[in-house]
Structure to design on (277 residues):
C-alpha cells in the first residue's frame, strides 16, 4: 500500500467543504484506499446513516452536533460515491432528480400557487405526487407504497398516518387512550387464559404495541425516537445503578432486589424524575 498525497485544507464555503469531503470519500473507496471502506455496500451505509442520524438527534439535546452532523454527511456522501463508481451516473441523476422534484412540489415557492399554512402545503405536495407524478397506491393494496424493509415500529406509524389522511381516525385523543387500555386488558386476559401455542398472547401484545404507536402518532410524536429516548434513559440510569452497586458492594441478583430498588429510586430522585419513570 502506498501513501496517498492528500492534504486537508480548512474550507470556508459549503460547496468547497462538500467537495473536499467527497474527494476524501472517493480516495477511501478507490484503488489504494481503505479495505474496510471498499468493502462497504449501499445497504451497510444506509444502515449506518440511520444510526448516525439517531446520534445526531442525541447530540442536539446536549448541544454538540458538529461531529455527528459530519458523520451524517459522510454517509450520505459515501452513498453518492457508491452510485458514481464504474462510470455510473446514478448519483448525478439522483441529485438532479431531487432538485427538480423539490421545485415541482413547491409551486407556492417557485410558482404562482398560494397557500396559507403548512396544512395546505401538504395538500399541494400530496396532490402533485398523485396527479402529476402518478404515485398512486396499487388497485388492490392501499399500502403498496410503504417500504417492505421498514422496521415494524416505523411501519405501524406509517400505516396509521396513511389511513388517518383519508379520515379513518379517532375524533379525539380520549378514544386513542381508551383503545390502549382496551388492548392492555386483552393482553392480561390472554395471559390468564393462554392457548397452547401462545399465539393469542403474541397477537394481543402486537395489538397493544400498535395502539401505543397510534397514541404517539396522534399526539404528534415519533414513536421510534420516543422509544430511543427511553432506551437511552434506561441505559443511563442502570449504568448509574451498576456503579453505585459496586461502590456499596451490592450484588446484582434477585436476592438483593430491595437494595436495587432503593438505588433506583435514589437515581430517579437525583434526576428529578417522577414516580412513573
Amino acid at each position: 500500500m502506498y501513501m496517498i498525497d492528500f492534504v486537508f485544507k480548512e474550507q470556508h464555503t459549503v460547496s468547497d467543504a462538500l467537495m473536499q469531503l467527497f474527494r476524501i470519500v472517493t480516495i477511501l473507496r478507490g484503488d489504494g484506499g481503505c479495505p474496510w471502506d471498499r468493502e462497504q455496500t449501499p445497504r451497510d451505509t444506509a444502515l449506518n446513516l440511520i444510526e448516525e442520524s439517531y446520534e445526531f438527534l442525541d447530540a442536539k439535546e446536549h448541544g454538540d452536533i458538529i461531529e455527528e452532523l459530519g458523520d451524517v454527511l459522510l454517509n450520505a456522501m459515501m452513498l453518492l460515491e457508491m452510485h458514481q463508481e464504474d462510470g455510473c451516473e446514478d448519483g448525478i441523476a439522483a441529485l438532479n432528480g431531487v432538485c427538480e422534484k423539490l421545485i415541482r412540489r413547491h409551486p407556492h415557492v417557485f410558482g404562482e400557487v398560494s397557500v396559507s399554512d403548512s396544512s395546505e402545503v401538504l395538500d399541494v405536495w400530496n396532490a402533485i405526487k398523485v396527479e402529476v407524478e402518478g404515485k398512486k397506491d396499487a388497485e388492490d393494496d392501499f399500502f403498496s407504497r410503504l417500504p417492505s424493509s421498514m422496521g415494524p415500529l416505523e411501519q405501524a406509524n406509517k400505516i396509521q398516518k396513511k389511513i388517518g389522511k383519508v379520515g379513518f381516525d379517532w375524533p379525539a385523543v380520549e378514544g386513542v387512550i381508551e383503545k390502549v387500555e382496551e388492548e392492555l386488558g386483552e393482553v392480561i386476559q390472554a395471559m390468564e387464559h393462554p392457548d397452547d401455542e401462545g399465539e393469542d398472547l403474541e397477537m394481543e401484545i402486537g395489538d397493544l404495541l400498535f395502539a401505543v404507536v397510534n397514541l404517539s402518532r396522534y399526539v404528534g410524536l415519533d414513536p421510534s425516537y420516543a422509544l430511543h429516548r427511553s432506551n437511552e434513559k434506561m441505559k443511563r440510569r442502570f449504568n448509574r445503578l451498576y456503579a453505585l452497586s459496586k461502590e456499596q458492594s451490592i450484588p446484582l441478583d434477585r436476592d438483593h432486589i430491595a437494595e436495587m430498588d432503593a438505588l433506583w429510586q435514589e437515581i430517579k430522585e437525583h434526576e428529578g424524575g417522577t414516580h412513573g419513570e
